[in-house]
Amino acid sequence: MKKPTAETVMPPTAGQRGPAEHDRRAQIIEAADAYFRHYGYNKTTVADLAKAIGLSTAYIYKFFDSKQAVGEAICGKCLGIILDELTKIAHAKRPADERLAEMYISIARESERRFFHDRRLHDIINIARASQWQIAKDHQAAVLELILHVVAEGRAAGEFETDSSLFKTCNAVAETFLLVWHPVLLEERLDGLEERAAEISALVLRGLRKK
Question: MF terms per GO, please (predicted)?
Answer without folding.
Answer: DNA-binding transcription factor activity; transcription cis-regulatory region binding
